[in-house]
Amino acid sequence: MAKREEILTVALDLVAQQGFRRTSIKDIADAVGLTQAGLLHYFDSKDDLWVEILRRRDEVDSAHDWGIAAEDPGAFLAAIVRHNTEVPGLVQMFVNLSAAAATDAGHPAHEYFRERYERSRDDFTRDFRAMQQDGRLRTDVDVEQLASVLLAISDGMQIQWLYDPSRDMAEHVELVARLAVAQSVTTASA
């Protein structure tokens, strides 16, 4: 187990630094002192390794102190997206594997992404519902739809950012969150 943990830690750093397409199994194996076959002994396949790297990324992100109140899912997601600009290789990996997994139910990443989206939507929905109850979020906003839309904005902006790194991914997530928080326009009769 210790070697598997070392592999995932090293692979996470290599992909983040070198990029998804420029990091090979050989690069990772060399960095941890194994042969390629020896490295793959710890995983079912190369794709399984990539999925496990994404899981590790999620663990690291979850454990990180983003300096954001957990009760503000829009700000929390924006902080993670802002951090993603520092790890472009992991963004490349996420985008590539999510597209492959979405189109192939047999892909090793399919279940990971299905569970990840379900968990994220549930968490954001719960937090947005709490915001509504506290009066911090408009009551006319469907919190389940808002959770889905914020995730879609985040993922879509990551794709646009890979094409044009001058695009501010976090700013777009924050925009949608601000629109949901904004007070409803009311017309009062005098």
Automatic annotation (TrEMBL):
<feature type="DNA-binding region" description="H-T-H motif">
    <location>
        <begin position="24"/>
        <end position="43"/>
    </location>
</feature>
<keyword id="KW-0804">Transcription</keyword>
<dbReference type="InterPro" id="IPR001647">
    <property type="entry name" value="HTH_TetR"/>
</dbReference>
<dbReference type="GO" id="GO:0003677">
    <property type="term" value="F:DNA binding"/>
</dbReference>
<protein>
    <submittedName>
        <fullName>TetR family transcriptional regulator</fullName>
    </submittedName>
</protein>
<keyword id="KW-0805">Transcription regulation</keyword>
<dbReference type="Pfam" id="PF00440">
    <property type="entry name" value="TetR_N"/>
</dbReference>
<dbReference type="InterPro" id="IPR039538">
    <property type="entry name" value="BetI_C"/>
</dbReference>
<feature type="domain" description="HTH tetR-type">
    <location>
        <begin position="1"/>
        <end position="61"/>
    </location>
</feature>
<keyword id="KW-0678">Repressor</keyword>
<dbReference type="InterPro" id="IPR009057">
    <property type="entry name" value="Homeodomain-like_sf"/>
</dbReference>
<dbReference type="InterPro" id="IPR036271">
    <property type="entry name" value="Tet_transcr_reg_TetR-rel_C_sf"/>
</dbReference>
<dbReference type="Pfam" id="PF13977">
    <property type="entry name" value="TetR_C_6"/>
</dbReference>
<keyword id="KW-0238">DNA-binding</keyword>
